[in-house]
Specification:
By secondary structure, the chain is α+β, with helices and mostly antiparallel strands. It contains 19 helices and 21 strands. The chain binds adenosine-5'-diphosphate (ADP) and magnesium ion (MG).
Length: about 650
């Protein structure tokens, strides 16, 4: 029998361990089960090297709980430990590790979130247990089994044990706050969270459950013997492991079927929708990385664009969405990434500055770009079909990652007014003569339908930019394509809509005259009027909204200037121009009859109609508009 004090520092360790993982106490399950997996893996390696004969019984890990005894046990039939090894790996190493850990985190243990808790894993048991025992027997036949006991993590005792078979049993006597971990459902839930894909089969047993009476069982079988097939029988009697030891990502892509990819997706991400497509990452050199990234089908109107990337280390779940490893824009996807080489026992901020982590992140982003550009080149039809779903992701990627932008910029496509998809160069080429280096775009098909119709009539194309991300994306495109400028479809009237029936002098004369009449009628001192001879005579009035000042206003809205005491309406009307069509009869009437009885009414109505085709009327303006419309109708009825 051997006794000892665990370490000079041990009194400091347990409060830290407890605090350090306060929010996820359940992580001890992961640590102890992954230790069991490690123990099995070590033994497998030895047998590969011919130093150990492959056993007849399969490798497995058992988790047994008893809520009566308030215990949880972890049993493996892996490599086991000799007394010397317990001394070395449990009594000494873990504590030297703990010292280093304490040193590193002594000031930050509370706020700094630590990604992996590997290295101190075993001692996480003391987060939930007052007393822990290890009973272990090494695979080396001539070594005695050992029983190690430790209460409160302060003092340990070691003695010989009677354990006859190879492997390790860890027993946790749960503390008062942690009785939940002796509950079957709670434990299964935690195993599901962290251990779904661990490489050794995990079985659960509830020690409190009544053992089935063998006699009754026989009667049962007899009663329904006729209907039962042999397969039923084996299925019922053979317990199933809780985990899948060969997750799809660990297989070679050539060995996976579409069905398997989809099934895996539904299961892991609880998404009943089909994924659009996926990328299977499989890399051995210069680092080890496997994973599957899915492009989810999203409904941009209802779903928020938030994916989940689950990070694993040798099939052990680490965490979701670790932004230090996964490029931010990839977080919109759903996927699993297993990277055994990641240094996980460091803090997040250390990961962020890790060159290796940067390489991983670059690799993933490159793979995604390759897949997308490959699809564009070979299956453009598919690519177009997916575009509406994937474009926010791609645009976000371009905005966030210069390299991704370089790879993807030629493969960004835009829907035009006919619903066809064009690249930016394709659009510019088609409009070379009519709108050199100008890109007209639509942000709201319904609200801008008047303008769209006008553009269509004139055979001028525009691109759909209807998503939130399009606004910053347009700015990016302008930065990257120096001569190209974007104009919302209502931003200006291109010369294409105008015939040249008006001389410069006449235009000026009309403009001055109409400006005065409209200002007076509308009582709007800062109204800007412009007279154009539009080809379409039926169009009387329209509004244009200068691209520059509109963008400015949008930006201010975005940064919440209004909330800062600046009134956005201060800028309202700025950049807005009332276009009046000199070819239209109503406009001509106003020009010729500035002082007639109904002229002011016509002016107001023309202005409101122009506004309505551009944006909703204010409540006040709407009331007036309705009253005025009725007035006009009653004139008709006279
Ligand atoms: P790590 O797993 O990162 O080495 P742990 O604190 O989890 O750190 O475990 C410390 C050491 O204790 C392990 O490296 C291993 O040598 C030994 N050990 C822990 N659990 C087992 C087990 N179930 N079977 C065999 N050895 C174990
Ligand atoms: Mg461990």
């Amino acid at each position: 029998m051997k006794k000892g004090n665990l370490s000079i520092n041990s009194e400091n360790i347990f409060p830290v361990i407890k605090k350090w993982l306060y929010s996820d106490h359940d992580i001890f399950v992961r640590e102890l089960i992954s230790n069991g997996c490690d123990a099995v893996t070590k033994l497998k390696k030895l047998s590969l090297m011919g130093e150990f004969d492959e056993p007849d019984t399969p490798y497995r890990i058992d988790v047994i709980t008893s809520s009566e005894d308030k215990t949880i046990q972890f049993i493996d039939n892996g490599i086991g430990m000799t007394a010397d090894e317990v001394e070395k790996y449990i009594n000494q190493i873990a504590f030297s590790g703990a010292e280093a850990f304490l040193e590193q985190y002594k000031d930050k243990a509370t706020e700094e979130q630590i990604i992996g808790h590997f290295g101190l894993g075993f001692y996480s048991a003391f987060m939930v247990a007052d007393k822990v025992t290890i009973e272990t027997k090494s695979y080396k036949d001539d070594e005695d089994a050992v029983l190690w006991e430790c209460e409160d993590g302060l003092e340990f005792s070691m003695k010989k044990s009677v354990k006859a078979d190879r492997g390790t049993i860890i027993t946790l006597y749960l503390n008062e706050d942690s009785y939940e971990f002796s509950n079957e459902y709670r434990v299964k839930e935690v195993i599901d969270k962290y251990c779904s894909f661990m490489p050794v089969e995990i079985y659960y047993t509830n020690a409190d459950a009544p053992v089935e009476d063998p006699k009754e069982a026989t009667v049962d079988v007899k009663a329904s013997e006729d209907e039962k097939t042999e397969a039923d029988d084996t299925e019922k009697n053979t317990p199933k492991p809780l985990n899948n030891t060969t997750p799809l990502w660990s297989k070679h892509p050539n060995d996976c079927t579409d069905e398997e990819y989809k099934e895996f997706y539904h299961k892991v991400f609880h998404d009943y929708k089909e994924p659009l497509f996926w990328i299977h990452l499989n890399m051995d050199y210069p680092f080890n990385l496997k994973g599957i990234l899915y492009f989810p089908k999203i409904n941009t109107q209802y779903d928020n664009l938030e994916g989940t990337i689950k990070l694993y280390n040798n099939q052990v779940f680490v965490a979701d969405n670790i932004k230090e490893v996964i490029p931010e824009f990839l977080m919109l996807l759903k996927g699993t990434i297993d990277c055994p080489d990641l240094p996980l026992n460091v803090s997040r901020s250390a990961l962020q500055n890790d060159g290796f982590v940067k390489k991983i992140s670059d690799y993933i982003s490159k793979k995604v770009a390759d897949k997308l550009s490959g699809m564009y080149k070979v299956h453009r039809e598919d690519y177009e079909k997916y575009w509406d779903d994937i474009n926010p992701f791609i645009k976000f990627g371009c905005l966030k990652d210069e390299k991704f932008l370089d790879k993807m910029k030629d493969y960004c496509i835009y829907k035009n007014l006919e619903g066809k998809y064009l690249t930016l160069p394709e659009y510019l080429e088609a409009g070379k003569e009519k709108y050199e280096n100008k890109v007209f775009y639509v942000t709201d098909e319904l609200a801008q339908s008047q303008y769209i119709n006008m553009f269509k009539e004139e055979g001028i194309d525009a691109l759909m930019m209807t998503q939130t991300i399009d606004s910053p994306f347009i700015t990016l495109l302008e930065q990257k394509n120096e001569n190209v400028h974007f104009y919302r479809i209502d931003a200006e009237l291109s010369d294409n809509f105008v015939n040249d029936s008006l001389s410069e002098e006449t235009t000026k004369e009309y403009t001055d005259k109409l400006t005065e009449i409209f200002k007076k009628a509308l009582d709007m001192e800062n109204l800007t009027v412009k007279v154009e001879a539009l080809k379409n005579e039926a169009t009387s009035s329209m509004l244009t909204l200068s691209e520059e000042s509109r963008r400015m206003q949008e930006m201010m809205k975005m940064y919440g200037m209004a909330g800062m005491g600046m009134d956005p309406s201060m800028f309202g009307g700025q950049g807005e121009t009332l276009i009046l069509n000199a070819n239209n009869n109503l406009v001509k009437y106003v020009l010729d009859n500035p002082d007639k009885e109904n002229t002011a009414t016509i002016c107001c109505q023309l202005y409101d109609l122009a506004v309505i085709a551009n944006r909703p009327l204010s409540a006040d303006a709407m009331t007036k508009f309705i009253a005025r419309s009725n007035e006009i109708l009653s004139i008709l009825a006279k």
